[in-house]
Write a sequence for this structure.
């Protein structure tokens, strides 16, 4: 599958997908969170009949609309890239991965796209109740859209509910429900959407802070801050809980990712959590345990063991344990996994050859062996390792994983206090006097985006070299096209996405300067 | 087999409903403060 593979092609394909996904994720979290915030605001309007809430809703709806339109453009490109750049992957697992993506397109995206029209153009044309329902369905549709995408992503992190078909050499789905309700997928959905709510709440508070600093639309801004600071505070607590739950999944199913984002080279019992640390740039070497991993670190004892396994003294494997193996704790070495993976590939090749040459008896015997529970568990589950050349190749970028994870966590803790302060100052009627805080609120908007992007870097860089955990390495998933072609589209997309982002920021800033429009109508 | 995941997934709509009710409670309680006019300070340019 990967003979004569061009590494430049793999790297450029990865860079292009990362670029598209990261740009897409600039627009998506605001859509997910702002949709719910708008729906809450409109519900307050319908329940109270206060037209100030209609004015507030309509302003944030404009922000939602600008963001939604530009987000769709990047999302469509992302889905096409599975076919253009990752066709080996799509071929291998398309039967499974395609299902949630198709449901996302047919059900959730259509639902969202249909009701968004009523939401924007239905004011004064449909009843208040119908309009409110449309707003909620748009918000829920956007989040259900995210559910299906994250189910697909969760499956890549922990493949479940499938069986390998040696006839076609493809993965086939055996249980849709197992894929949908995989704890990895559910946690991923909850953690990702709640973090999107946090980002949207910070966006609303930051923009409202600008209005207060300008001495404009103070009541509008205060009300927007109260809604989003309560929503944001609950969302950040929910994000912390779901993040904790995700960490336990990762410790069990993706121990290398867990070790990488904690910078843990040598595993230990009662492992400590690095609260703050700077990785050693010159002395870190995964193959030499005597060298220092960190130039400086502040560690909280036993917390990592508890976070991973709910046991203060549990053993948390480090990168070295996972590469070299650790007999005491029953951890298989990467070399052994590679050998088992190679054996699985050889058996499959032998089966294909026997079948091709008409040796039916031998082919049937090989098929029975491949499909036996023992072979599936002890050999086929390491199929992807058969493509790994060097044991160190199973280690992702540790500094990138470590710093991204810690940036996300530190900013997450800061957001807890940020929401509490925003709410406290507003309900005490002091927010307009806290000019330093208002400036901080504006600058917290880019920090929310930074935390959000860092989260995805942890999830996606941390799982390398796998595109499907243990079954398919990224290098085997790529489409064999020229690296030059991918390089050209990379720069083309970089220019287009940057232009779209600049356009979005400019249009939004223009709308913010115009501000909320006065409401004269009775509806 | 899937019950724990289903229950965990149901925390999402619960979160949205709880958020709305807490927001509604806070708005009702603090609306007079939120609507109180402020003396116009010199706005920033």
């Amino acid at each position: 599958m990967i003979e004569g593979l061009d590494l430049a092609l793999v790297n450029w394909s990865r860079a292009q997908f990362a670029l598209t996904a990261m740009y897409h994720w600039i627009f998506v979290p605001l859509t997910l969170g702002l949709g719910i915030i708008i729906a809450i605001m409109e519900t307050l309007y319908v329940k109270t009949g206060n037209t100030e809430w209609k004015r507030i809703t309509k302003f944030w709806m404009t922000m939602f609309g600008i963001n939604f339109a530009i987000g769709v453009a990047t999302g469509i490109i992302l889905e096409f890239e599975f076919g253009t750049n990752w066709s080996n992957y799509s071929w291998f697992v398309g039967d499974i991965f395609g299902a949630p993506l198709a449901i996302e397109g047919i059900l959730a995206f259509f639902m969202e796209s249909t009701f968004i029209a009523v939401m924007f153009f239905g004011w004064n044309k449909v009843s208040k109740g119908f309009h409110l329902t449309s707003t909620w369905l748009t918000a829920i549709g956007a989040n259900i859209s995210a559910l299906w995408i994250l189910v697909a992503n969760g499956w890549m992190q922990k493949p479940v509910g499938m069986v390998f078909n040696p006839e076609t050499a493809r993965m086939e789905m055996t249980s849709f429900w197992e894929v949908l309700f995989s704890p990895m997928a559910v946690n991923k959905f909850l953690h990702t959407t709640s973090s999107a709510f946090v980002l949207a709440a910070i966006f609303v508070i930051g923009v409202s802070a600008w209005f207060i600093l300008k001495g404009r639309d103070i009541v509008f801004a205060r009300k927007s801050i109260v809604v989003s600071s309560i929503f944001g505070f609950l969302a950040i607590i929910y994000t912390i809980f779901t993040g904790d739950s995700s960490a336990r999944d990762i410790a069990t199913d993706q121990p290398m990712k867990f070790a990488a984002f904690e910078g843990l080279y040598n595993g230990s019992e009662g492992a400590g959590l690095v609260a703050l640390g700077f990785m050693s740039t010159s002395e870190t070497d995964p193959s030499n345990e005597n060298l220092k991993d960190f130039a400086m670190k502040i560690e909280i004892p036993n917390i990592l063991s508890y976070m991973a396994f709910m046991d203060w003294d549990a053993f948390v494997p480090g990168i070295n344990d996972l590469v070299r193996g650790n007999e005491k704790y029953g951890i298989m070495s990467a070399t052994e996994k590679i050998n088992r993976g190679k054996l699985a590939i050889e058996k499959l090749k032998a089966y294909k050859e026997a079948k091709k040459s008409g040796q039916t008896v031998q082919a049937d015997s090989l098929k029975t062996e491949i499909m036996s529970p023992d072979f599936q568990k002890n050999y086929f589950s390491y199929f992807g390792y058969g493509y790994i050349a060097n044991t160190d190749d199973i280690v992702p970028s540790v500094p990138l994983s470590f710093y991204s994870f810690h940036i996300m966590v530190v900013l997450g803790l800061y957001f807890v206090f940020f929401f509490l302060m925003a709410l406290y100052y507003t309900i005490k009627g002091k927010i307009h006097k806290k000019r330093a805080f208002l400036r901080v609120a504006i600058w917290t908007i880019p920090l929310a985006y930074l935390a959000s992007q860092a989260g995805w870097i942890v999830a996606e860089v941390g799982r390398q070299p796998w595109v499907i955990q243990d079954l398919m390495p990224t290098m085997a998933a790529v489409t064999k096209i020229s690296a030059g072609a991918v390089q050209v589209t990379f720069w083309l997309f970089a220019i287009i996405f940057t232009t779209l982002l600049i356009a979005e920021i400019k249009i939004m800033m223009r709308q913010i300067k115009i501000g909320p429009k006065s409401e004269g109508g009775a509806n | 087999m899937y019950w724990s995941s289903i229950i965990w997934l149901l925390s999402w709509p619960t979160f949205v409903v709880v958020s709305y009710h807490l927001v509604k409670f806070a708005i009702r309680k603090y609306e007079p403060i939120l609507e109180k006019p402020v003396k116009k300070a010199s706005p920033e340019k």
